[in-house]
Structures are given as structure tokens and as C-alpha cells.
Design a protein that fits this description.
The protein is an alpha/beta fold. It has helices spanning 2-15, 22-28, 30-46, 50-64, 171-183, 197-231, 241-257; strands spanning 67-68, 73-74, 79-80, 87-88, 93-94, 99-100, 105-107, 120-121, 126-127, 132-134, 138-139, 144-145, 150-151, 160-162, 167-168. Strands 3-6-9-12-14-15 form a six-stranded mixed beta sheet. It has a five-stranded parallel beta sheet with strand order 1-4-7-10-13. Helix 3 runs antiparallel to helix 4 (50-64).
């Protein structure tokens, strides 16, 4: 028990830059207190002392503002940061190393007793503030759930889910946007992947700049071909040179119009 408590304290010190000492974490972090009390409640629940487990859970909720059903399964190294308003349902399973921020709900959408009604989080999952993960779905290892996202379907390992309803971020598009932003002189890290109108406008500007860069590259290629055709003086050109030059001129005019 004490070894696991020490491990939890070490995890908080590693992940929270605001934590200054082990004593501070032990005495002032409600997320840690809620997890310790949940272990007692879960032990009672697994022994079929259902009322006693719920009673401990209710005391924990009153003291910490974090509601964890005693039937939930929580692995070691889980960090509930701040924690106020977190709700974790009966059949939820949380893997090792997960980080859960305030206002998160791991809830159910089914009313059938005995069914897997609540989500399963893999290892090292991060669930942002205010996110709602609903239903007996699985969130893969190292996945990230954006703030205020509403997840009602499985999330693949390593993916990022944002929005309401949540959508999976296209990794290829993100990589292209990051590269374009870097060439423009700043990092796209500041562009949040959510439905905020300002961030969507910024993403649109970055995508538009990348498209224009591609069009300029095509423009230079067309100019180089036209210059090469003019340098040949019409004697060493292939039979369809005039047609090719006309086609490149049309492409050039089209690009300029765009």
C-alpha cells in the first residue's frame, strides 16, 4: 500500500510542475486523496460489502469533489489533476499512467445492469478538462482527449479526439500543417486542434499559405519549361512543342487567375 502511494506521489511530482514537495502532494492534492479512498472503497466492493464501499465513496466525494464509483478499476500511476467535478462510473477501467483533468466524466449510455457501460482507458491516456467519454468504448494507449470533447466511439491508440461530437484528428494533415507553419517562421503548436473559431481561422490561414506555396512552385516549373522552349528557337523542339507551350501558357494564366 505504501509502495503504491509513493509511486503515485512520484507520478504527480513528475507531471505537475506546480508540485514543490512530497509533503505538499500528500497533504494538498485531492486527486491523490480520492484515489487512496477509492482503493479502500474498491476493496470493500470486491468483497461484496457494497454499502460500505458506497459509503466510503460518498465521503470521498464530499471531501474532494471527485466521484469515483467503488466498482471502477484504476491502475497505478493515475493522476487526477485538480479533480473537482470528475465523475468515474462503475464499469470504467483506467490504465496505468493516465492523466485526468477537472470536470471529466467517464460515463455510461446504457441502463442495463451487468453490461460494460463505461469506457476503458488504455495506458498513458490524457483526458482534457471538461471532456465527456461516454459508453463502453475503448480509448487506446497514449491517446489524447481534447478539452470539452464528447467521445461516443472508440479512439485508436496514439490518436487525438476533439470536438462535439468528437472527431479523430487526421495525423497526415497535422504533419503537413506543422511543416508549413515552421517554414513560415512559427510553430503550429499554438494552433489548438478544436472547434474554437479563432483556432479554425488560424488553421485555415496556414492551409491557404501551404496551398499558395504549392501553386508558386507549379508557376516556376511552367516558366522554366516556357524558357527552355524559347531557347531552342523552334528548331530542336519536338513535333508537339507548340501544343505543349500553349498548354503551359494556359496553365500559367490559370494559376495567375487563382
Amino acid at each position: 500500500m505504501f509502495a503504491r502511494l509513493n509511486h503515485d506521489i512520484d507520478c504527480i511530482l513528475t507531471r505537475d510542475p506546480a508540485a514543490k514537495s512530497r509533503w505538499e502532494v500528500l497533504t494538498c492534492y485531492p486527486g491523490l486523496h480520492a484515489l487512496v479512498m477509492h482503493r479502500l472503497a474498491h476493496a470493500a466492493w470486491t468483497r461484496q460489502w457494497y454499502w460500505f464501499g458506497r459509503f466510503i465513496s460518498n465521503i470521498s466525494r464530499f471531501l474532494t469533489g471527485i466521484e469515483i464509483h467503488p466498482g471502477a478499476q484504476i491502475a497505478a500511476g493515475v493522476f487526477i489533476d485538480h479533480g473537482m467535478g470528475v465523475v468515474i462510473g462503475e464499469t470504467a477501467i483506467i490504465g496505468e499512467g493516465c492523466t485526468i483533468y477537472q470536470g471529466v466524466t467517464l460515463g455510461g449510455t446504457s441502463l442495463h445492469k451487468g453490461a460494460k457501460r463505461h469506457p476503458t482507458l488504455g495506458r498513458n491516456v490524457v483526458v482534457g478538462a471538461g471532456a465527456q467519454v461516454l459508453g463502453g468504448y475503448e480509448v487506446g494507449d497514449n491517446a489524447k482527449i481534447g478539452s470539452n470533447a464528447v467521445v461516443t466511439k472508440p479512439v485508436p491508440a496514439g490518436a487525438t479526439a476533439v470536438g462535439n461530437p468528437a472527431r479523430i484528428i487526421e495525423q497526415a494533415a497535422d504533419a503537413q500543417r506543422e511543416a508549413a507553419a515552421s517554414r513560415m517562421g512559427f510553430s503550429a503548436y499554438g494552433v489548438t486542434q478544436n472547434d474554437d473559431p479563432l483556432s479554425l481561422a488560424m488553421r485555415g490561414l496556414i492551409d491557404n499559405a501551404a496551398t499558395q506555396e504549392h501553386q508558386i512552385a507549379l508557376l516556376w516549373q511552367a516558366l522554366e519549361r516556357l524558357n527552355a522552349a524559347a531557347a531552342n528557337g523552334g528548331t530542336a523542339l519536338p513535333p508537339d512543342a507548340a501544343k505543349t507551350g500553349h498548354f503551359e501558357a494556359e496553365k500559367l494564366n490559370k494559376l495567375i487567375d487563382e
